[in-house]
Structure formats: structure tokens, C-alpha cells
Amino acid sequence: MYGIILAGGSGSRLWPLSRELYPKQLLNIISDKSLLQSTFERLTRCMKENQILSITNIKHAANVKMQIQELTDNPVVLSEPVAKNTAPAIALAVKYILQTTGDDPVIIVVPSDHLIKDNEKFADTVRKGEKLAQEGYIVTFGIQPDYPETGYGYINTLKPLNLGYKVKEFVEKPDLITAEKYLKAGTYYWNSGIFMFKASVMIKEIEKLAPDIAKITNNVDFTKSKDIPFVEFDKMPSISIDYAIMEKSDKIALLRLESDWNDLGSWKSIYDVSNKDENNNVFVGHVIDEGSKNSFVYASSKLVTTIGLEDTVIIETEDAILACKKDKTQDVKHIYETLKKQNDDTHLVHKTVYRPWGFYTVIAQGNGFQSKILHVNPGQKLSIQSHNHRSEHWVVLNGTAKVILEGKELILSPGHSVDIPVKAIHSLQNPYKEDVEVIEVQKGDILLEDDIIRYEDMYGRV
């Protein structure tokens, strides 16, 4: 069995903690591991580590690879050059597995951002699903609903099979009255977004039901490189696997997921699965409260004080605060979309941004300048790079920094500084055992992360 982890979502409903460049699957929300890492570990109960493939957008690839590398030595990560939804991603991931294994394995596809605590029951369901997949079915894993949820899609079932049910139809997220009807009918399940199939079965269904995807996929040769060419992928239609295949195929079977499941699609859903105090409150971080009930307060960088709240959610980050009624958390995505339309970077990135070499925090910015603190972990180094539109000034705060500047090597201790002119080829490195912290002051007309030309990079980002 092989596994495909879909790790390219934006997590807009968990703003402001989730951002476009650091979405919810990369966050440690419930435990000391991210949702992506928990998903990877869950799959290792069913297959070997080297049989798990993650596919993500190129803007998340470095962080996805970095997180999986904490769990296994040689992570397999495919990078989509542009976002084209789940059908093209799954088609190419299946093609990669077929070409690199020379076999026709059963494959399970899982989102990277779901919470499942009972991993043993999950593995038991997967083993049952494998039997259905070997019979030629595309298996979808359904969740038995216990209340009329309007935030999920539903799957309606027909007569029972030896295992599971034949699927009648997929239906969109319903209004409350319709959801109540689905609950009473007893034949409807929540769509978990988890699928299982034999590789050859999925490829044939894609050829039959989504020939435009199949045609482009056939032009990609993973035996030469695991890079997905932009020229080919950009021609892909942007369509989900549900619309492209699942809603059209006559080979769909549903198996009830026997474990717990939560897609953590809103702050309310996180509140629901969190441990609560005697007043049904959830407080995370530095929070002081007087007399609140049934509320969720998350403080990431500041003291947050609350008095007399009821059914309220407050989320504090370095650069944004969300406050809403608990039953309105699904609407957070509208705020996210508004920020995106206004070109407000608050939807895009945090002030603290994680990189394979460590992280940086933006501490000040204004017209023509930006300052950051760079934190470089032991044994790591930034790419050898240049910038067309900005100069940089580095001052070492802690540790010993190795600087490469136009082919020359400089060793800087705390208090020492160096100027990096526009277009100069340079690198900041830490070959030592202690962390390095550097203040970086950028000056220029354009101060964007895109203004980086990489010549050499130990993380494969050239």
C-alpha cells in the first residue's frame, strides 16, 4: 500500500493563525506535532515511511519537506508549480507511484489537516478499505453524522456491499433544514475527503472521465525527474477530485470510518475537541479571565485579558486579532478573502516566517525599508543568492556567523556587521553548534521575498 498526503490547502477559516504561506496543516494546534506530521505518522501504521508521498504547492514545499524530515530521512515531496485543486494533484501523484515502483499498488489519499486521535481504529478501517479497493472499487471513507452539520459535503448510499455501501450520490454542503433531513434519513455520511483505490483503476477513470487531465499527465515523465514542469501543469483544469471523478464514476463504494474524525475547519471545531475548564472555556497562551463562559481565547504573543465573555472566540497573533461569536467562525473565510482582495499581507504571511534554515521575524517596516531578526539554526545556511532591488545590512546579535560575499568568506562575532550591496552574491551561514541571530535591515524600492535569485541551495530551492 502507498499513501498520498494532500498538503496544499490554505486554511482560510483558521485565520489569523493560519496564513496562505503557512496554512493550518503546518501548525501545532492540538499537540506538539503539526497536523501534517500527525497525518504522516498515522499512515506509517499501514505502510513503510518511504511509501508515503506528500504533494503540495511550491510555496509550501520547503516547509512541508522540513517537517517530514523530522520524521524520516528521505521524504518524498512533489511540488505543484501552481495551485490546480485536488484532481490534477492526485493524478500526478498516482503517475509518480506507478512510474517509480513499476507496480499497481493500492493507494490511500488523505488530507494533511484532519484530526484523528484513534489511530488504531483508523488503521483497521484502512485495512478493510484495501479489500474493497482490490475488488476494483474507488473507496471513499464516510463519517456517520451525529448532528446536522452545514459545513461538510454529504454522500448518500445505496444497498450494502460485503464491506461498506454502494454510493448513490455526492451532495454539496446543505442548509440546516436539508442537513436535518439527511440526518433523519440515515443513509447520508459526511465526506471525509479520504479515498482509496488501485492505481490502475484511478488512472482508467481519469482517462474516461477527465481526459484533459489524463492527456497532460501522460506528458510528465517521473523516471527522469520528480519535478512537475510548469508548462504542462499550467494547462491543467482547476478541479477537485469530487467533481472530476467521484461524482461521475460508477465504481464508488463508501466505508464508514470507524475512528474519530474532525477536519478542524473552524475555530469552533478546535474548541469542540479541546480540554475545557469548569466554565467550559478553552484558554491557550497568556490569558487572564474573569467570569467568562463557553469561550475560546488563544494568545500567541501578548497578554490577553477577558471579562464576562459568553460563546466568544478571540484569537491573537503578532499582527492581527480575531473576535467573533462562536457560531460565526465559519465566516472567518470572508475576512480572509477581503484581506486578499485588498492586497493586505495579513492574509499571506505572519511576522514570523519559518524557513528550512530557521526563521525570521519582521520587527519594523516602512517606506523603502524593512528590518528583520534572522535566526539560523546550527549546521544550516541560507542559499547563495542576490537581490535586484534591495541592499541589506547585517548586524550579528548572537553566535558566530559565516558570511559569503562576492566569493570572500567573513567570520562575524556579536556586534560586527556587514553591508550587502544590490546585486551582490552572498550567503549567511551557521556551520557551528550554537544558534545565530542577525538583525537585517533592507533598503530599496521593492522589498519582496520574490526578489531572490538563488545560485546554490542545500534545500533544493534553486
Automatic annotation (TrEMBL):
<feature type="domain" description="MannoseP isomerase/GMP-like beta-helix">
    <location>
        <begin position="291"/>
        <end position="339"/>
    </location>
</feature>
<feature type="domain" description="Nucleotidyl transferase">
    <location>
        <begin position="3"/>
        <end position="279"/>
    </location>
</feature>
<dbReference type="InterPro" id="IPR006375">
    <property type="entry name" value="Man1P_GuaTrfase/Man6P_Isoase"/>
</dbReference>
<dbReference type="GO" id="GO:0000271">
    <property type="term" value="P:polysaccharide biosynthetic process"/>
</dbReference>
<dbReference type="InterPro" id="IPR005835">
    <property type="entry name" value="NTP_transferase_dom"/>
</dbReference>
<dbReference type="InterPro" id="IPR054566">
    <property type="entry name" value="ManC/GMP-like_b-helix"/>
</dbReference>
<comment type="similarity">
    <text>Belongs to the mannose-6-phosphate isomerase type 2 family.</text>
</comment>
<keyword id="KW-0548">Nucleotidyltransferase</keyword>
<dbReference type="InterPro" id="IPR011051">
    <property type="entry name" value="RmlC_Cupin_sf"/>
</dbReference>
<dbReference type="GO" id="GO:0005525">
    <property type="term" value="F:GTP binding"/>
</dbReference>
<dbReference type="GO" id="GO:0016853">
    <property type="term" value="F:isomerase activity"/>
</dbReference>
<dbReference type="Pfam" id="PF01050">
    <property type="entry name" value="MannoseP_isomer"/>
</dbReference>
<dbReference type="InterPro" id="IPR014710">
    <property type="entry name" value="RmlC-like_jellyroll"/>
</dbReference>
<dbReference type="GO" id="GO:0004475">
    <property type="term" value="F:mannose-1-phosphate guanylyltransferase (GTP) activity"/>
</dbReference>
<dbReference type="InterPro" id="IPR049577">
    <property type="entry name" value="GMPP_N"/>
</dbReference>
<dbReference type="Pfam" id="PF22640">
    <property type="entry name" value="ManC_GMP_beta-helix"/>
</dbReference>
<keyword id="KW-0413">Isomerase</keyword>
<dbReference type="Pfam" id="PF00483">
    <property type="entry name" value="NTP_transferase"/>
</dbReference>
<dbReference type="InterPro" id="IPR001538">
    <property type="entry name" value="Man6P_isomerase-2_C"/>
</dbReference>
<dbReference type="GO" id="GO:0009298">
    <property type="term" value="P:GDP-mannose biosynthetic process"/>
</dbReference>
<keyword id="KW-0342">GTP-binding</keyword>
<feature type="domain" description="Mannose-6-phosphate isomerase type II C-terminal">
    <location>
        <begin position="343"/>
        <end position="457"/>
    </location>
</feature>
<keyword id="KW-0808">Transferase</keyword>
<keyword id="KW-0547">Nucleotide-binding</keyword>
<dbReference type="InterPro" id="IPR029044">
    <property type="entry name" value="Nucleotide-diphossugar_trans"/>
</dbReference>
<protein>
    <recommendedName>
        <fullName>mannose-1-phosphate guanylyltransferase</fullName>
        <ecNumber>2.7.7.13</ecNumber>
    </recommendedName>
</protein>
<dbReference type="InterPro" id="IPR051161">
    <property type="entry name" value="Mannose-6P_isomerase_type2"/>
</dbReference>
